[in-house]
């Protein structure tokens, strides 16, 4: 194909190659020629077209005027360049207007901010080693706000170091809602510091999901609403227990061994730690060990009702070593059940040191030998915790009454309760004995328990009746019986000598008295059938 112009002169034949895969046909611009020039002659040759995707178009042409060719070439080249680069340039402008940091940049920013927060924590004495992986504030200012808030609650840097994860709690989202809820329940603000020291995890809790259900459960255990705040103050860890876990199984086991349902509320109020005890690891082994010593299971239940804190005595590191100490100091194995039933504290204190100390005291003051000391423990195990000052005051009183050292020794061994009675009441009883009853001191030596009976309610009425009837009897026969039994004795023709020898002693059956609600638990429902559940 050729195009000829009427202009004569030399021909310049430049060649231009235009190629782009996005264009399937040639697109070019023919510039306007200078007016001084006539129509140029253009010759096109070597036309090569290939249509379709990725097709190339190649045109070789010649123009009689260099300026037109060069101008056209530059124009086509610029336009082609603009068309090829237009998309990228437009994208670049768009990125500039709507820029977002890359994931790498965001990660680097987090690392830098965390390092600053760590540096701040270290500067105030907090060790951040355990905070790796925990979501923390991105700025030092927010972290400072959390630390300051914890300080206002009374927590020290040491407290925070004991549980540094508390720094992951938001003041507005976590701390304030939880503390507001506790305050509305009645937990005293003055107890917040100790509360959080014992259970800082509460600040992570959800009021609706975690705390409110536990409070509702406690109310269902007959704990009065006004008492629940005291329970939480005493044992804040209870807020972290699951209802279907330890709490429900421990209560169920206690009820199963005979603890009265109506006593559960009072038991948990006095010792809420029971709710956190594992049955198989703690409660059940403790109960079975006491049973093995001879205390009936129902008696154990009664002891737990009265003194639930005994469940907190460590079986291996307290109870068993103390039982061995009692045996070592001469207490009979057959008496262990009675000793523990009378004074459950004896298996939870530092017993051996007390036994050594008390044995030395009794030996130096009334010449008590080890065998008599063990007999005293069997009759009144509380003597192991008797203070020196009250003991010496009672010894001085007996000396003032005219008793010799051997007589005092016999009286104390026969009735150790003498050492724990109110001295003013003992003085009144002794004055009546000496002035109104007209008896010898030997009668008191033989029956020192005289001092344990009420003067107005028992001693005077019976003494007057016996003297009115002209009977001669020992103090034991006069006093060591119930009112009903005493009336029967008044109808005897003679005095039964066997009854005269009776001495007051602990009766295990006193712990086995039936409860009004015991009909809820039959023998078939005893925990023996459920033991496997608490392994």
TrEMBL record:
It holds the Pfam family mTERF. Keywords: Chloroplast, Plastid, Transcription, Transcription regulation, Transcription termination, Transit peptide. One of its GO terms (molecular function) is nucleic acid binding. Transmembrane segments: none annotated. Residues 519-535 have a biased composition (Acidic residues). One of its GO terms (cellular component) is chloroplast. Residues 71-83 have a biased composition (Low complexity). It is found in: Plastid, Chloroplast. One of its GO terms (biological process) is DNA-templated transcription termination. PANTHER family: CGI-12 PROTEIN-RELATED (PTHR13068), TRANSCRIPTION TERMINATION FACTOR MTERF4, CHLOROPLASTIC (PTHR13068:SF109). This is Transcription termination factor MTERF4, chloroplastic. It comes from Papaver atlanticum. The lineage of its organism: Eukaryota, Viridiplantae, Streptophyta, Embryophyta, Tracheophyta.
């Amino acid at each position: 194909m050729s195009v000829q112009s009427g202009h004569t002169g030399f021909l310049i034949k430049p060649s231009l190659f235009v190629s782009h895969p996005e264009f399937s046909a040639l697109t070019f611009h023919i510039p306007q020629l200078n007016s001084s020039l006539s129509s140029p002659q253009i010759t096109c040759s070597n036309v090569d077209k290939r249509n379709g995707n990725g097709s190339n178009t190649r045109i070789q042409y010649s123009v009689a005027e260099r300026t037109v060719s060069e101008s056209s070439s530059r124009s086509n080249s610029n336009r082609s360049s603009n068309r090829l680069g237009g998309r990228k340039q437009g994208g670049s402008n768009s990125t500039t207007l709507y820029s977002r940091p890359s994931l790498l940049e965001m990660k680097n920013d987090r690392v830098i901010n965390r390092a600053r927060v760590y540096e701040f924590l270290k500067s105030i004495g907090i060790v951040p080693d355990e905070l790796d992986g925990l979501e923390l504030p991105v700025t030092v200012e927010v972290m400072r706000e959390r630390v300051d808030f914890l300080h206002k609650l009374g927590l020290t840097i040491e407290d925070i170091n004991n549980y540094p994860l508390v720094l992951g709690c938001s003041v507005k989202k976590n701390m304030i809602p939880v503390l507001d809820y506790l305050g509305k329940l009645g937990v005293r603000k003055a107890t917040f510091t100790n509360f959080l020291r014992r259970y800082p995890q509460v600040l992570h809790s959800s009021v609706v999901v975690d705390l409110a259900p536990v409070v509702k459960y406690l109310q269902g255990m007959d704990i009065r609403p006004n008492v629940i705040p005291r329970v939480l103050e005493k044992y804040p860890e209870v807020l972290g227990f699951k209802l279907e876990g330890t709490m429900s199984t421990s209560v169920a086991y206690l009820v199963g061994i005979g603890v009265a349902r109506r006593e559960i509320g009072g038991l948990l109020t006095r010792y809420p730690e029971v709710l956190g005890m594992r049955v198989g690891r703690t409660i059940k082994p403790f109960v079975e060990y006491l049973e093995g010593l001879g205390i009936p299971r129902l008696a154990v239940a009664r002891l737990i009702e009265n003194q639930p804190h005994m469940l907190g005595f460590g079986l291996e590191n307290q109870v068993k070593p103390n039982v061995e100490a009692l045996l070592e100091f001469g207490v009979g194995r057959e008496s262990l059940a009675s000793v523990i039933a009378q004074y459950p504290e004896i298996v939870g204190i530092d017993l051996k040191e007390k036994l050594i100390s008390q044995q030395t005291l009794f030996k130096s003051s009334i010449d008590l030998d080890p065998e008599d000391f063990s007999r005293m423990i069997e009759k009144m195990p509380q003597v192991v915790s008797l203070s020196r000052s009250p003991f010496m005051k009672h010894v001085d009183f007996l000396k003032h009454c005219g008793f010799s050292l051997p007589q005092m020794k016999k009286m104390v061994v026969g009735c150790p309760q003498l050492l724990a009675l109110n001295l003013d009441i003992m003085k009144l009883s002794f004055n009546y004995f000496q002035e109104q009853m007209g008896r010898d001191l030997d009668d008191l030596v033989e029956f020192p328990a005289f001092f344990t009976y009420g003067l107005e309610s028992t001693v005077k009425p019976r003494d007057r009746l016996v003297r009115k009837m002209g009977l001669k009897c020992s103090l034991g026969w006069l006093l060591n019986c119930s009112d009903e039994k005493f009336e029967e004795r008044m109808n005897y023709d003679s005095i039964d000598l066997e009854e005269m020898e009776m001495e007051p002693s602990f009766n295990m059956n006193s712990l086995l008295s039936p409860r009004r609600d015991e009909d809820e638990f039959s023998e078939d429902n005893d925990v023996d059938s459920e033991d496997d559940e608490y392994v």
